[in-house]
Amino acid sequence: MHHEALSEALPGDNVGFNVKNVSVEDIHHGNVAGDSKNDPPMEAAGFTAQVIILNQPGQIDAGYAPVLDCDTAHVACKFAELRKKTDRHYGKKLEDGLKFLKCGDAAIVDMVSGKPMCVESFSDYPPLGRFAVDSPLTSYAFSYTLWSARENPMERRCYLHKELLKEVFGTTRFKSSAPNEM
GTP-eEF1A C-terminal domain location, by residue (predicted)? Predict the structure, then answer.
């Protein structure tokens, strides 16, 4: 969709836009664009997620730090605490105080990012509230973020004027992830 005039962009569409006085070298995959006056994008110190393990050989213990793909960000995050095992279909609690997760398990886990990144709850911003865990051979987990510990607004963020966001995207509610690379 680059170099094409669009009347509307929908969630999941990859679009490009120009911002005056911002060099292309300052923009990286996963950067966040948002309205500075209305719920601006922020870093997440940590987040709680519902994780379903799909194709993991072996087990996942607390402290395991895989690379997560959240929107266009690619960041290592640690499984800080395995809080409780849940039913994959209904979300009912099955077991507290987990020692490990294995293939087929669903659980609520606390995660800590190795680098600053923008993660939001799935109910607020679906594209920033889901992630996948990848290995070189296969994807083996996916998740929905239930809660994000938002901190101070990210430094060196590219703010866009509200009217420009409305004109380009048809909405002022737009975010991406991985602000640390700006």
Answer: 47-133
